[in-house]
Design a protein that fits this description.
This protein is an alpha/beta fold. It folds into 4 domains: 371 residues, Hydantoin permease, CATH 1.10.4160; 184 residues, Helix Hairpins, CATH 1.10.287; 153 residues, Heat Shock Protein 90; 126 residues, Rossmann fold, CATH 3.40.50.2300. It has 35 helices and 19 strands. The strands form 6 sheets. The protein has a 5-stranded mixed sheet with strand order 6-8-9-11-10, covered by helices on one side. Helix 32 links the parallel strand 14 and strand 15.
């Protein structure tokens, strides 16, 4: 068994099956919540909740006792006695009472013990979920047949007392119970208990009348032989068959006794007393009432009353009250009050039980439940039709035929409860939930079907007159015997369709209707992936029993038939044929039963049996043909419905997939939108920061330029120095932005070159020791002796990282020390930059790595605000790790960890090229192409003093013409130019001269040089604006293979 977790809405099914998940729509949930309103439903389709059993045992017992008030007992006693005499009546009553007592005990016990009505009890007693619909139909028919018989008695009393015509009396008798029954057990119990004293007082009057008759009346009764001249055995058999038709009355008692409180709460004595007195004990009072009816009928006949009136309880009690009350009006009043009281009390019960039976029948077949009150009105209308059709004239024959069905049903149920469960042939307890039951259980259904077959054949007279008379007894014996036999042969496999689930909580919430129910009313539903109540399970039409481990009903028959029928046919063909045969047999059976009843009724009335049989046989043949069309219509309609349902499921699945795809697309679009908005916001912040950083040096450049333009008094050297520093700041800013962009888009390439680590560190330390001294602080450096001299790394990027960190340490240390400490744990190098500066707040430790973010505690510090941003990005790109620790007021420590591999020392050392201010050798001609005159003037002022002959062009076409005319040794080509850009002009020059003349491409757009170099690129080298003069001279020297005449910096 599967143990439900703390949340019963999320549990796993006990069976492992492929499940089609269903979605609960609002309309479905509201409908199920509506039909779950127990104010009117009164637990019609479900286990009676423990919390609903709030009445005392005495109150429930009195309610059940009220249903015994029905005057049909007197009518049956009178009818049997008039027809077959006292002796046959007495023996038949004794045998019937014994059967009722024995059968009633287990039925009432299980019904009250497990809180189930007669329909639910039948489900778990060998009939299965759909198999019990047969018994529900039998039970519902019993209730409206008995309802109509009782209501006819009341109508006769109304006619006798007030002269109301029978049709109107029938309407009044039928409709009067609806307001009471509509509100279920609460209203019914109030009615039954409040009217109980008056009913009991009036009920004892026949006993007084009987005592008044003395020994003469008793002798007259016991000596009455009846009007029918039949053998004693036949008379006994007919009387017993009539009495056995009351066997379903025990089911009506169970419908009330299910409201008994739990035995553990009220004690065993009180529980058993209430159960026995009004459960199986109903027949004690019922037998007394039958005997009273028999006695009063004999007395009425002796006083000259006709046989029809002597069988009418209203007339019998009028006679009884008239014998005790001298006033005739008083006798009429007492009669009408008593008859009305009795008939309303019993018809309240008949209508209540019928509404429950019809609810069970239709809800299981249609998966819909319009409400118990609807079926209450439906059953009442059917009973009214039977009353108007004159059922009172054929009551004996109707009940005799009906008893064959009643005993077949109850015989199987009683055998299962009395034999199968104690012997372990069926599971203990009563399982009524659809989720755990097979559709059909051969134990109950098979026993009942064979019993009906045998009793019907006997009833038709095929085996002779005596078996015909004893057909109900034969049917009861067959069903009672076969149920254990079938259970033994099947091994009890068809009681439970799957393992039962247990719940950890006493109450669980239904996944469909969202109401809370007690655990015995719940099941685990894999279709809805949670707990579901029994009613919602009943109304579920789309799951097709997906939770059950073995195929159900038709499918199980097909699996068996596969072994014996032709294999080429598909399962769909077998299913279609079986459904047709089943529907056809049901139609023929119902039609044949109706024709048999007509035949039996008319032959008893005196019609010619041979002629009637010939006519009915012809009608039956015609009906079979029509029934075939009806059966095929039913079969194909069901297939069409299932095909439409499957197509709807496929379309729904496709739609849900499409919706899910749209949801994913919408989510991606939303994420993209959010990312774009975030990027747009970051861009705005970025531009604001850039604007601030650019405007500051531009202000200095613009200001000094205006001063130089206006006055000759401004010191020229100071102004130029400021302009140069500001220009350098702008160049650094642009370079920083370019580095950030390259790192972010992944275009930065890390070189792997041999680097002299000790020399690099010495250069950096020497450079920053001077800066630190200029600020009045100390600069310390430490490194281990085993630090490798040569390593493989990107020297430019490593230098940039260390310079950025050390310059920040010096910049933000007003007093104290700054230090660079190097540690080596092969192959990890750790660079630790410490300072005793202002420190950083903990909240700002991550923010300092964002572009243009600065520590607010130190004002006026130079820098572009990108140093730490670029440093972290470079460290990440080089596979290292950058961490920071800081205490405000005490200083900060930046630590960089990187993996380096040691490199062997070069054989001939490394030459460090230096930029020069002049070159030795032959004078060289350069062609400079740029559309900006300022840049052309700059290169003229730079290159002509160095001894170069310079030609100029302002676009690509002019450059080609100048190249053809002057044949330069080097072309310096700008890219972005009007008319013809630099790339196009460079390719044209290559087409003219091949590779003999080197081309140096220059551009302010760094993206021009970020793509990988291709084989067809026309240039030899490239340089980004703004460029350093020393770098430009170095590139020219390399491309022209020039020898420097003296070290760089000799002439500036």
């Amino acid at each position: 068994m599967t143990k439900a977790g703390p949340d019963p809405g999320r549990v796993e099914a006990a069976s492992d099956v492929a499940i089609k998940r269903q979605v609960i729509v609002g309309t479905r949930r509201r409908y199920n919540q509506w039909v779950n309103n127990q104010t009117l439903e009164d637990y019609a389709l479900r286990f009676t909740a423990t919390k609903a059993r709030v009445w005392s045992p005495m109150w429930v017992a009195n309610t059940a006792l009220g249903s015994i008030a029905f005057l049909a007992c007197e009518a049956l006693g009178a009818t049997v006695t008039i027809g077959y005499g006292f002796e046959s009546m007495a023996w038949a009553l004794g045998v019937a009472a014994a059967i009722f007592l024995i059968s009633g005990i287990p039925i009432c016990y299980y019904g009250a013990r497990y809180g189930v009505d007669m329909d639910l009890l039948t489900r778990g007693s060998g009939f299965g979920y759909l198999g019990s619909t047969i018994t529900s139909a039998v039970y519902a028919s019993f209730t409206f047949i008995l309802f109509s018989i009782e209501a006819v008695i009341l109508s006769a009393a109304l006619e006798l007392s007030f002269g109301i015509p029978l049709p109107i009396g029938h309407l009044i008798s039928a409709m009067v119970v609806i307001p009471i029954v509509a509100y279920g057990f609460r209203r019914i119990s109030q009615w039954q208990n409040w009217t109980q004293p008056l009913w009991l007082a009036l009920q004892v009057t026949p006993v007084l009348f009987l005592a008044a008759q003395g020994p003469h009346g008793l002798a007259l009764w016991t000596g009455f032989h009846g009007t029918e001249e039949t053998r004693p055995l036949a008379s006994f058999a007919v009387a017993l068959a009539v009495f056995l038709s009351l066997l379903p009355q025990i089911g009506e008692q169970v419908d009330y006794l299910r409201f008994l409180p739990e035995r553990e709460k009220i004690g065993r004595l009180r529980w058993w007393s209430a159960l026995l007195a009004t459960g199986p004990g109903w027949i004690v009072i019922g037998a007394v009432k039958i005997a009273l009816g028999s006695f009063l009928a004999v007395v009425a006949l002796s006083r000259g009353m006709g046989a029809a009136d002597a069988a009418n309880p209203a007339m019998l009690y009028f006679m009884s009250f008239g014998g005790l009350v001298s006033n005739g009006t008083g006798a009429i009043v007492l009669t009408i009050v008593f008859v009305a009281l009795c008939q309303i009390k019993i018809n309240v019960t008949n209508a209540y039980a019928g509404s429950i039976a019809s609810s069970n029948f239709f809800s299981r077949l249609t998966h819909r439940h319009p409400g118990r009150v609807v079926w209450l009105v439906f059953n009442t209308l059917i009973a009214l039709m039977l009353m108007q059709g004159g059922i009172q004239t054929v009551v004996e024959r109707v009940l005799t035929l009906y008893s064959n069905f009643a005993v077949a049903w109850f015989g199987a149920v009683i055998a299962d409860l009395m034999i199968n469960k104690p012997l372990g042939l069926s599971p203990p307890g009563i399982e009524f939930r659809r989720a755990y039951l097979h559709d059909l259980n051969p134990v109950g259904v098979g026993a009942m079907a064979l019993s009906i077959l045998c009793s019907t054949l006997c009833f038709a007279g095929i085996f002779g007159e005596v078996p015909r008379m004893l057909s109900p007894v034969i049917g009861l014996t067959v069903s009672f015997t076969l149920a254990p036999v079938i259970a033994r042969l099947t091994g009890g496999r068809y009681y439970l369709a799957r393992r039962q689930d247990s719940f950890a909580q006493a109450e669980c919430t239904c996944k469909v209707c969202e109401n809370r129910f007690e655990a015995p009313d719940m099941a685990v539903c894999p279709v809805y992936d949670g707990a579901i109540c029994s009613l919602c399970c009943t109304l579920e039409a789309r799951c097709h029993d997906a939770c059950k481990e073995r195929p159900q009903s038709i499918e199980s028959v097909i699996s068996v038939a596969r072994r014996y029928l032709p294999s080429p046919l598909t399962d769909e063909v077998y299913a279609r044929v079986l459904r047709f045969l089943l529907a056809y047999c049901v139609c023929i059976g119902i039609g044949g039963l109706l024709l048999l009843l007509i035949f039996y009724q008319r032959t008893v009335a005196g019609d010619d049996a041979r002629a009637l049989a010939s006519v009915l046989r012809t009608v039956f043949v015609g009906f079979t043909a029509i029934a075939g069309f009806g059966a095929w219509y039913f079969t194909l309609s069901r297939e069409s419905q299932r095909a439409a349902e499957q197509e709807t499921e496929r379309q729904t699945v496709s739609l849900m997939k499409e919706i899910a795809a749209h949801a994913r697309t919408d989510a991606e679009l939303q994420r993209a939108k959010n990312a774009a908005e975030a990027a747009n916001l970051a861009k705005s912040r970025y531009i604001i920061g850039i604007s601030h950083e650019i405007r500051t040096p531009l202000n200095a450049i613009s200001g000094y330029a205006q001063l130089l333009e206006r006055s000759n008094g401004t010191p020229l050297a100071d102004a130029v120095r400021v302009i140069r520093r500001s220009s350098t700041h702008l160049a650094d800013l642009v370079d920083g932005l370019v580095d950030v962009s390259r790192i972010e888009n992944g275009s930065v390439r890390i070189a792997r070159e041999r680097v002299n680590l000790t020399e690099l560190l010495t250069q950096i330390v020497d450079m920053f020791r001077i800066q630190a001294a200029a600020r009045g602080i100390q600069f310390k450096h430490g490194r281990p002796g085993h630090l490798p001299i040569w390593i493989y790394t990107d020297q430019k990027r490593l230098r940039q990282i260390l310079i950025n960190l050390i310059s920040n340490a010096i910049k933000y240390t007003p007093a104290g020390t700054a230090a660079l400490n190097v540690y080596w744990r092969n192959p990890v190098a750790e660079f630790e930059v410490q300072d005793t500066g202002v420190g950083i707040d903990e909240a700002a430790l991550e923010r300092i790595f964002e572009p243009f973010e600065r520590i607010g505690t130190v004002r006026g510090q130079k820098g572009v605000g990108l140093g730490l941003t670029i440093t972290r990005m470079l460290v990440d790109v080089m596979g290292g790790q950058l961490t920071v620790r800081s205490t405000p007021g005490l200083g900060s420590t930046f630590t960089v960890k990187m993996f380096f591999s040691e490199a062997p020392a070069p054989e001939d050392g490394l030459a460090t090229p230096s930029a020069q201010s002049s070159f030795a050798g032959q004078r060289r001609r350069l062609l400079v192409v740029d559309d900006d005159p300022t840049h052309l003037e700059l290169t003229r002022d730079l290159l002509v003093p160095l001894g170069f002959e310079v030609e100029f062009a302002d676009n690509g076409r002019t450059a080609i013409e100048t190249f053809l005319r002057s044949r330069p040794d080097l072309v310096i080509m700008d890219i972005a130019m009007p008319a013809m850009d630099g790339w196009e002009a460079a390719r044209a020059i290559r087409a003219i001269d091949g590779d003999s003349v080197p081309i140096l491409m220059v551009s302010a757009n760094v993206h021009d040089f970020q793509r990988p170099r291709r084989d067809d690129d026309p240039h030899d080298d490239c340089l980004a604006k703004p460029y350093d003069i020393e770098v430009l001279l170095d590139r020219i020297g390399v491309l022209l293979d020039l020898d420097p005449s003296h070290p760089a910096g000799a002439a500036e």
